[in-house]
Each structure stands twice: as structure tokens, then as C-alpha cells.
Write a structure and sequence with these properties.
Length: 182
């Protein structure tokens, strides 16, 4: 299946509907997952449409770390290191994908790339590999590879580093301790 249609009724008193083709699969591994602090981005209808597909896990190992003073989870693009990372797979429309790009500051900090994700297909009772968009940190400082890695992120996890939303005074420079500048 390439995608599905999402139909949204504009008003209850009208027969006009908006039809959106759900054409993008996105793998989320951090604060966008269910029960995490930024999950509301995926459920806010003003951001577009999303549909939970299922639990997923990366087909390759990657280091999933927590960094910055805000305890932000980062998936470092260093294939073969770290763990097979667990997360959620969503199918989203163009509008939602563009909103996620804004949240993740793609392509300035996170880089959105297609990668193989293993998902359990309940209808066939088998695991299958699907291509999903994943937000990676690619231009990271090498010392980040020395941080503890995890296979599954939770803001309330045993690491005792809960995610903290940045204040209005914060800027993109708050990420300077993880990014290699050109």
C-alpha cells in the first residue's frame, strides 16, 4: 500500500470535504512518540493529518543519545553503532511533514532521510521492512558518540534526563554543543 486517503469534513452543515493523500511514512523515536512531550504535534489537526501505523525499529543500529541543556534526544547518523532503535511509525500528509520539518529544523540541524524500518504487519502476522523518513543528526560533534546510547527513548526514563521545552529566550544556538559548524 502506497498510502491512504484521509477525508476531513469542513463543517457538519456542509457536504464539502477535503481529501488528503497520505503519502509519507515517518519514523519517530523521541519526543514525538506516543505519550511523549511533543506528541501533540502529530495529533494537532492544524498541523495536518497523521495516522499511527505501528511500532517500528530501525533495520540498522544507530546511537540514540540525549544532549543539550534541554535533554533533547538525537539519533546520530553513525550506522552500525548503538542499538536497533525502537519508535513509532506514522503516515502523514504533506502539511504534517512540512510542520515536522519546522519542528526538527530540517535541513539546518536534523536531516530528514529515508531509511529502512521494521514494522509488524498485523494482517499478515509478519514483520516487514518499509521505507520511512527519519530525522538524523548528521553534522554532530564526535564526542557525542561517547555518550550513553539507548534503544528506546522516554522522557521519564531511567536516565533521569527529562525533556525540557526551551523557553522563549532560547535560540537555535542552544544546539551549538552538538553541531559541527561549517
Amino acid at each position: 500500500m502506497i498510502g491512504f486517503l484521509a477525508i476531513t469534513r469542513l463543517r457538519e452543515t456542509t457536504n464539502v470535504c477535503i481529501v488528503r493523500f497520505m503519502s509519507h511514512k515517518v519514523f519517530v523515536y523521541g519526543t514525538l512518540k506516543r505519550n511523549e512531550p511533543n506528541h501533540h504535534w502529530l495529533t494537532n489537526k492544524e498541523n495536518g493529518v497523521s495516522n499511527f501505523v505501528g511500532d517500528g525499529v530501525t533495520a540498522s543500529k544507530y546511537p540514540l543519545i540525549i544532549a543539550t541543556r534541554y535533554n533533547i534526544p538525537f539519533l546520530l547518523y553513525s550506522p552500525g553503532e548503538g542499538h536497533y532503535v525502537k519508535g513509532d511509525v506514522y503516515e502523514v500528509d504533506d502539511k504534517m511533514l512540512s510542520k515536522l520539518d519546522i519542528l526538527e529544523d530540517h535541513p539546518n540541524y536534523y536531516i530528514r532521510e529515508m531509511d529502512d524500518i521494521k514494522v509488524f504487519n498485523q494482517s499478515t502476522n509478519k514483520e516487514e521492512i518499509i521505507k520511512c523518513w527519519v530525522y538524523f543528526l548528521k553534522k554532530f560533534k564526535p564526542e557525542l558518540l561517547k555518550r550513553p546510547t539507548m534503544e528506546s527513548y522516554s522522557s521519564a526514563g531511567p536516565h533521569q534526563l527529562p525533556y525540557m521545552e526551551s523557553s522563549n529566550e532560547s535560540t537555535i544556538e542552544d544546539l551549538d554543543d552538538v553541531i559541527v559548524k561549517k
